[in-house]
Design brief:
Layout: H1 19-27, E1 30-36, E2 41-47, E3 57-59, H2 67-86
Antiparallel strand pairs: 1-2, 2-3
Helix pairs in contact: 1-2
Length: about 100
């Protein structure tokens, strides 16, 4: 069973059935790479940031059955990360 079926989709996450549309959606946020690995498909999105010296990646597992499953996994994780960052307590002082 693919890992993408184990993720809970957030109601605000887009449902995209066409791989081209899915790839277009990710280019708004960063650079996507889809790769065929030994055990299945893998996806990674190198996210765009506007702060010098910062970066982060969103990754899927290596065992997805199709490229669109791997990409969906990344997109769901990407949206979850963006929601988390949007609600983070950025102004909190670190002791």
């Amino acid at each position: 069973m693919s890992q993408v079926t184990k993720l809970e989709r957030h109601p605000e996450d887009p449902i995209i059935h066409d791989l081209n549309d899915l790839l277009d959606e990710t280019t708004r946020y960063g650079r996507i790479r889809l790769m065929r690995m030994k055990d299945g498909w893998y996806c990674v999105i190198e996210m765009n940031t506007n702060t010098t010296g910062t970066s982060f990646e969103v990754k899927s597992e290596f065992d997805h059955g199709t490229p669109i499953e791997a990409a969906h996994c990344c997109i769901q994780r990407m949206h979850a990360a963006l929601r988390t960052l949007g609600t983070a307590d950025i102004g909190r002082k670190i002791p």
